[in-house]
Specification:
Length: about 80
């Protein structure tokens, strides 16, 4: 699994957990719809720390809280 795949899975889990839509996340985070679509569809292969910070803001959490998930605690993540 790539880091981008892990980020997408984390986004999907948080959307469900917090009961918000992807559109609402885009509005709260400041990430444009096209950019979010590239992330979610796997076309974006390089999710940056800035993007993680924006996603965290959109979910109302700190970046370390976004990354504090078992999905990121694997040596099998490919940095691609």
């Amino acid at each position: 699994m790539t880091v981008n795949d892990a980020v997408v899975k984390r986004i999907l889990a948080l959307l469900k957990e917090k009961n918000i839509t992807q559109y609402r996340l885009e509005q709260e985070s400041g990430i444009q719809h096209g950019s979010m679509q590239c992330i979610m569809n796997g076309r974006n292969k390089t999710v940056t720390l800035t993007t993680i910070m924006m996603l965290a803001k959109g979910f109302g959490m700190l970046p370390y809280e976004f990354l504090n998930d078992d999905i990121f605690n694997s040596f099998d993540l490919d940095a691609e």
